[in-house]
Design a protein that fits this description.
It holds the Pfam family F-box-like. This is F-box/LRR-repeat protein 18. The chain has 705 residues and is of the alpha/beta class. Among the domains are: 165 residues, Leucine-rich repeat, LRR (right-handed beta-alpha superhelix) (Alpha-Beta Horseshoe), CATH 3.80.10; 77 residues, no CATH class; 87 residues, no CATH class. Helix content is 30%, strand content 15%. It is built from 27 helices and 22 strands. It has a 20-stranded parallel sheet, sandwiched between helices. The protein has a two-stranded parallel sheet with strand order 18-20. Helix 13 links the parallel strand 10 and strand 11. It is globular, with a radius of gyration of 26 Å.
Length: 705
């Protein structure tokens, strides 16, 4: 395309090849490496030289190059293997395990990410035996992994690895005991409690895995657990070594565990040792380890950049006294996760109800002390502002000018003064459940930004907040009582809790305010009860031209999709949209919807979750044929199992050959075998889009490259 454009540009006096090498290298840096090496460099002599420049071949990223296949990887390694120092193949689930054999050509590799790739212990041994310069490694440990099959050369390479990321699908130490120089260890526990045959699994390690990890040089320890008791059993085995001797250089200790993860004598000894011997820069602990303990009072911090107290009963008083410490040491904090901390903005939690007003002085202290925050999560709690002028949560947060990502509960953005002044309208009194059918006539929502602005007083606190956070890239507005119908390891949720009373007035005008975020890339809206037409979505489609990820769930009344027309108008403007997730009961995925969605020329992943929802098979097939970039189609609807299976088979049969990464799951949402289907979804898709969750400040920034 570059060369073909020369003739067109020549008539205008502009020739791309006349640009300086520096400019051309910058342009080429946006082209996938496989295209550079296998296609672009064959067009002319100048590009042949530039495409092999070290700045373009030093780091090769294949993790979201969904068009790459085994033959392309083989040719790529053959052409530039010796020039590659960093190779990221994370999530390339579609590549056969034999593809890994070609990595041995990259003799100078320093960093290698194979998370989500199929790698046996024998293949891993053969590959690592040749990578003597490797210092950073990410792999999966699947059932059947046997550390005794690793050769002495492989173990020698592992002994020099200082950074290891390991995703466990079976109880095992993996390669950790071989990594005697570890400084950073990231562990992801995805072990299921039951086998496919229904047998209960044990958290005991496999026979022959008596070797213990070496943590003496460890600086970062991170563990993320999926639901299940087996994951808890296995992580305790990893922690047992830490409790015996805490590394002196440990500066980040993070454990993310859902549900209840009880503290034991060993973990208590570990925390006591940490309080005595280390100064931390990043901290995340299970809620049971923090609740009711004086741990935070004794831990010492150096220059903290990340705190997560998700789901803890930490009160605002304790937060100020024990963590913020009067603002003396928190200028370095860039990421803070307080999701589910229902009392974190109140002085005490003993006699307080979760719905009571927040203490604005605590939030103000937090904002002043942590003035450099870039990522803040306050979701999954009722943060109700009082009627005091100038002390609304949105007004205080507007001072955080460096914010890049923000998660808030719906009830926190309510403009109290506006609600007091205006009497409830008929639309406010409509129950947010299953409403009666209404006649569909001429659309009454405004067609442009100016009309919407005229309907909403732009002096509202949320409108002002959005106007002050001009560089925000990620925004999540999630109902404090919202829970997704999409399960992880349990049946689909059939009933949802009603929205907070304070959230009843949040609707189209608040959504329109979001359109001020010119640089917005990711948007999540869940359980906004007063959505009447969805008109604000059109404003977002027009103004937020960088939007790449959109997730909408339970907007407006639950009995019908009131925002469908506006959504279809919005999608026509979303040229950069790559990921779309929709969760709404009674959603009709028909011809009109898919025709509008076909305007999203960059779309790669689609997920629809709809109890009692319907779909038109012909419309889905036509959409897949028109949108050539789509490689993931997940639909969990109300259709029969036969309809779902036939459509899934048709999509795979028609498009798998041209789209090697194609992953299709179409299944009844309330079917008893849904959890079995979910376990086969590639972790990349499951974690990033299929399962609903708040992702702001979920992990420390730049945890892994």
């Amino acid at each position: 395309e570059i060369v073909r454009g020369e003739s067109e540009e020549a008539s205008n006096g502009v020739n791309l090849m006349e640009f300086s090498d520096e400019i051309l290298l910058h342009i080429l840096s946006y082209v996938p490496c496989t295209d550079l090496v296998l296609n672009v460099r064959r067009t002319c002599r100048k590009l042949a030289t530039l495409c092999l420049d070290k700045s373009l071949t030093h780091t090769v990223l294949l993790q979201k190059d969904y068009k790459v296949n085994k033959d392309k990887v083989k040719q790529l390694m053959r052409d530039i293997g010796k020039e590659i120092y960093q190779l990221n193949m994370a999530g390339c689930y579609w590549l056969p395990s034999s593809t890994i054999d070609h990595v041995t050509r990259c003799k100078n590799l320093v960093k290698l990410n194979l998370s989500g790739c199929h790698v046996t212990s024998l293949r891993l041994s053969k590959m690592l035996s040749t990578l003597q310069h490797l210092r950073s490694l990410a792999i999966d440990v699947n059932p059947g992994f046997d550390a005794s099959q690793l050769s002495s050369e492989c173990k020698a390479t592992l002994s020099r690895v200082s950074e290891l990321k390991q995703t466990l699908y079976t109880p095992s130490y993996g390669v950790v005991p071989c990594c005697t120089s570890l400084e950073k260890l990231l562990l992801y526990f995805e072990i299921l409690d039951r086998s496919r045959e229904g047998f209960m699994l044990s958290g005991q390690l496999m026979v022959g895995e008596s070797n213990v990890p070496h943590y003496q040089n460890l600086r970062v320890f991170y563990a993320r657990l999926a639901p299940g008791y087996v994951n808890q059993e296995v992580v305790r085995l990893y922690l047992a070594v830490l409790s015996d001797r805490t590394p002196e250089n440990l500066h980040a200790f993070l454990i993310s565990a859902p549900g209840s993860f009880a503290e034991t004598g060993a973990t208590k000894n570990l925390l006591d040792s940490m309080a005595r011997n280390v100064r931390l820069d990043a901290l995340q602990l299970p809620k049971a380890w923090i609740n009711g303990s004086g741990l935070l009072q004794h831990l010492k911090f150096n220059n903290p950049f990340y705190f997560s107290f998700s789901r803890c009963t930490l009160s605002g008083g304790h937060l100020i006294q024990r963590v913020i410490n009067g603002g003396k040491d928190l200028k370095s904090l860039t990421s803070l996760n307080l999701s589910g901390c229902v009392h974190c903005l109140a002085p005490e939690s003993l006699f307080r109800k979760a719905e009571d007003d927040i203490d604005s002085s605590i939030l103000e202290n937090l904002v002043v002390s942590c003035c450099n925050l870039r990522h803040l999560n306050l979701s999954a709690a009722h943060h109700h502002s009082s009627e005091s002028i100038g002390n609304h949560l949105c007004q205080l947060l507007s001072r955080l000018k460096h914010l890049l990502s923000l998660a808030l509960p719906v009830c926190s953005i309510t403009d109290i003064a506006a609600n007091v002044e205006k009497p409830p309208t008929a639309s406010n009194l409509v129950p947010q459940t299953f409403g009666r059918k209404v006649r569909i006539g001429i659309q009454t929502y405004p067609r442009n930004f100016a009309d919407q602005a005229n309907q909403k007083i732009e002096s509202s606190v949320f409108w002002a907040l959005m106007g002050s956070l001009r560089f925000l890239e990620t925004l999540e507005i999630i109902g404090s009582s919202f829970s997704s119908a999409m399960p992880r390891n349990e049946p689909a949720i059939r009933n949802s809790l009603p929205p907070c009373v304070r959230a009843q007035s949040v609707g189209d005008s608040e959504v329109a305010a979001i359109s001020q975020l010119t640089y917005l890339q990711s948007l999540t809206l869940a359980q906004l009860p007063n959505i009447l037409t969805g008109s604000g979505l059109i404003n977002i489609g027009l103004q937020c031209q960088h939007l790449r990820t959109l997730s909408l769930a339970n907007l407006g009344m639950m009995g019908k999709v009131v925002y469908m027309s506006a959504l279809m108008d919005m999608l026509k403007h979303c040229k950069c949209l790559r990921d779309l997730r929709l969760e709404q009961p009674y959603f009709c995925a028909g011809a009109q919807f898919f025709q509008a969605l076909s305007h999203c020329s960059s779309l790669q992943r689609l997920c629809i979750v709809s109890r009692s929802g319907t779909l038109q098979s012909d419309a889905v097939m036509s959409f897949m044929a028109n949108c050539l970039e789509v490689i993931m189609c997940h639909m969990f609807m109300g259709e029969s199992l036969t309809v779902c299976k036939n459509l899934q088979q048709s999509i795979v049969r028609s498009f798998q050959a041209d789209r090697p990464a194609l992953n299709v799951v179409i299944f009844p949402l309330l079917h008893e075998d849904l959890t079995e289907v979910i376990r086969d979804v590639p972790m990349r898709h499951l974690d990033e889009i299929t399962l609903f969750k708040s992702r702001v400040a979920e992990e420390p920034p730049n945890l892994w490259w």
